[in-house]
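ENCODED BACKBONE
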Amino acid sequence: MFLRQLEPRTARTTAEVANFALWPIAILTVLNRVFIKAVNGYITDDFRPVYNASLAFLNHRAVYGENYNTTDPHYLYPPGGTLLISPLAVIDPEKSRWCFIIVNALAILLAWYLLLKLFNFTLDTVAAPALLLAMFSSETVTNTLVFTNINGCLFLMMVAFLHLILQRKDLWAGAALGLTIAVKGPLLAPLLLIPLVRGQWKVFITALGIPVALNLLAWPFIVDYKQFWTHTLPYLSESRDYFNSAIVGNGAYYGVADWLVWTIRLTLAAMVAITLWLLYRYYRDDEVFFVCTSAGIMITTVLLLGPLGQMYYSMFLFPLLMTVVLRNSVMRNWPAWVAVFGFMSYDKWLSDRWQHIGRELEYLRTTFGWALLLIVAFCVLGDRYLAAKREGRLQPGTSLDPAWMHPEWSPEDSEPAVAARTKAGAAY
């Protein structure tokens, strides 16, 4: 039966044409990213410091003694994360790196499948190859594999958390998020706001218990445990002016006045607060839309307004981008996809002919992309709120969606169609 699916045949429908075209391109792109680009590697090597720290941990040597004045990748995982990733150093560095690439690639593929299920798509639909191609063509997936970091595994845990939170499997949802907190600390911790407002208190037992337990377990085995708190943690709370697409990072790089940086950050923070309030107030019963949109807004806020935001962290925004298939998605407009191009595109804008302009476009596109995404979400929901207020549709328990966004709506129900029928009836 499987071989019959591979039999070449002429497509009879538009959907078959799209499937026949997209599947080979998507699969070959995956193979290229995993076995060619990732294995080739790049100057930036996120794996080496992780492997060295794991080796030091297994041999009872100091882990947290790096010189943070250099621009090389640094080892920044907390003790609990060190305990989790320490098996990497059981084999030699080259084979370990290859295994790590494969593990992250498989994690991304599993997350892709779970995303499809989350939005009720099967592997037979056009969405499957389209999403696969989009993910592995993006900068975030490509550089996660090329630089060889753990983001693919964290992305899988995040998507699993979204699935489990929607299924009300609270302890398992907390466990998935707790593992990400144990490794990357506060990056995905704001997602705890979702179970908080949904009243899913059990999530916090495992989400906070797992990282605490892992840190306590690692304590006796790390010889410089205190160095993490006195040396590494202060560095994590600082903003740097290199490889940093957060507002504070680019502000420091370009010498922007502190008052202006704070004004921009506070303005965007206020917009995010209003956006999240509108989502909670009017959309919390539309569970998939609420959970995925809120998660994307919060993660974008952390990346843009926090001390450190790197382009390949945009992987965690894929659930928000997938909401485009929903009628009431905030992604159904062209400015949203200008924003997506800014932080997802693998294209480089460095120009030999227009060096100054090309450099600014390349360095700022991620920051502008994240900011534009937050502005778009604020404007879309704000516009719906004002329209609903004008039309008297702000009753408790109702959404802000206009009539045409409801599943039962048809083009015949539109105002022009109703007016035309009324006019025709009067003339008759």
Residues 49 and 75 are 5 Å apart (CA to CA). Residues 355-390 form the longest helix (36 residues).
